[in-house]
Amino acid sequence: MAEAAGPASAAPLRVATLDGSYFPPSKTSMLLDFAAKELGRHRRISRTEISVAELGPGFTSALSRAELAPEVLQRLRAFETADVVIAGSPVYQGSYTGLFKHFVDFVEQGALAGTPALLVADGGSDRHLLMIDHELRPLFAFLQAFVVPGSVFAAAGDFDGLVLVNAGLHKRVRKAVAGLLRLL
């Protein structure tokens, strides 16, 4: 777990970031990192980073929760018990990635009930931006998470390599995190 500094509070806010990218570091991981750091500017956080691409065969070969490798189960439990979830995926064939969904399939029913969640996604162009509202938001509604109304989508042109260069995107992340803070 990575610790981020921010204004002092009794206990750090437990934040889990879920990265659905197959090839980290990626634009998705940069969005998640930026959002988590922005949250860390306002509240002291303890962050658990979950990258589905790095979970290995103890995750990808599992067909049930009982088959998950212990280290994968530990990350899953951190996700389920987080105070805040920030989840993101690149757009893949109009939706989130298969490994992202595979991870979410192991989440216990009701574990995220009432948990504030911020959703982010990235795609090749703005034509993909509705993926958040048509795919991610219903998935997290099913999980009973309390999804922040503002989400963040980034297109390829918002980056120079893996660096967020669009000032408007920075503003959208800050606005989404402000919405998340209001939920807390």
UniProtKB/TrEMBL annotation:
Keywords: Flavoprotein, FMN, Oxidoreductase. Residues 14-157 form the NADPH-dependent FMN reductase-like domain. It comes from the Bacteria. It holds the Pfam family FMN_red. This is NAD(P)H-dependent oxidoreductase.
